[in-house]
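lol ok so funny story. i was supposed to be doing the assay writeup but got distracted and ended up predicting the structure for this chain instead. priorities right. anyway since i did it might as well share w the group, maybe its usefull for someone
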Amino acid sequence: MRFGYIWVMLLGGLMATASAAKPNVLFIVCDDLNIHVSSSGYPDIRTPNFDRLADRGMTFDRAYCQYPVCGPSRASFLHGLYPEVTGVLDNTSDIRQTRPGSVSMPQAFKDQGYWTASIGKIFHNAKADPGAVAWNEVERFRNDELPIERSARETFEAEHGSITSRKNRKPWKAHLQSVAKQTRGQQTPGYGPSGLTDDQHADGKNARQATAWLDDRAYGDKSFFLAVGIHKPHVPFLAPESYFDLYPREELNYVKSPVNFWDQAPQTAMVKRYEGFGFEMGVENDKLRREYMQAYHACISFIDAQIGRIFDSLERNDLWDDTIVVLVSDHGYQLGEHFLWGKVTLFETCARVPMVIHAPGVSGAAERSQALVELVDIYPTLAELCGIKTPTDLQGRSLVSNLGDVDAAGKPAAYSVVTRGDRLGKGIRTQDWRYALWPDGEELYHLKVDPLEHVNLANYPDHQKVLAEMRERLPQFARD
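and the output, tada:
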């Protein structure tokens, strides 16, 4: 162990004294992962390594993203700013153009002496990644070629020539969509056993690289900030076959949505991504839903195994007591709830995320917090734990007090937005309620009695007092 942290109470505040060096940080971000993990209380899936971290630290049961799409969410939590302030409200915008001079979390750590490294998807894509400004090392991997894809390619090339030639690129891409469900891309999501081993998948390679940096002490004498971007369960839902075997389709459980749900909810709260998955609005396709759910769950168990490999490296290198570990997702994901698939909604299953934090000497073991917290809070939290100076305009709130006290209060509300044309849908969650304002209406759900959000109370006379209160709180929160 390179150092120990002694935490003492002084002048009524939590302060830290480092005996040798600042703590390391392992920041793991999953892509499109909802709360279908056992550490979040989901009973139908096996994620022993999420549980492994939860047993060492604190699970935040009510953590929310600020925009349920990859690019805006990541720009938000990597800069500690809400999406309306970053100016990143889609997957193509770059904060370096929308808000020049913003200092990202890894840049702050690097500028103040940390060895920083990124593996996989941390910033939304390579174009948005700041590169050497933020990282000492950056790596991104792709899956190896699927066996079924290789066979199709060889047959295609025997007749048409190389798929890399200009004349063949588009025809090959179009042909690939029709070969098998596994070879489809994102528009009509692919899914199924990949035919690859764990190490042939991008996330297997991500885990292998992360463990290599830890095992080889690539960080030298510096403390490290290691960010691991886990790409799954983002579509296409591909994983080795052994993970599919864990989830027989006939044993999967889900709750059907009310057939008439969209008769009572604003139409702009809906996204039509379900069409790409092959579903019809208001029609329950049990067979197809089970196929996609099996594949999604297989991907989750697959990434859990890869995360476990990184945790094994912490173990064998005696780093657990020196390293803060944060495990989150960039946003949740719809799997047929309200007949919707994908993201870009404000429903709980889309905006709520798993969040587990292990902070040696600060967080207790196997603790759970019901405090309302947001992804935008991660930056100031890690900065305070590590003694890192931050820009003065960060909008997140440090969670150090929550890590030290399971009963500490969280935020009065969590705030999320999504784009609808040139306008925004905006929502807040309190301990008991979720309210959303859309261009064509409102939503109000009593989460304590209706956690699945099946009954929109916005038009019920008995709830006008609560509605009036939420109408007032939403613009106040957005303005603040």
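Residues 1-20 have pLDDT under 50 and may be disordered. DSSP finds 15 helices and 21 strands in the chain.
back to the writeup now i swear
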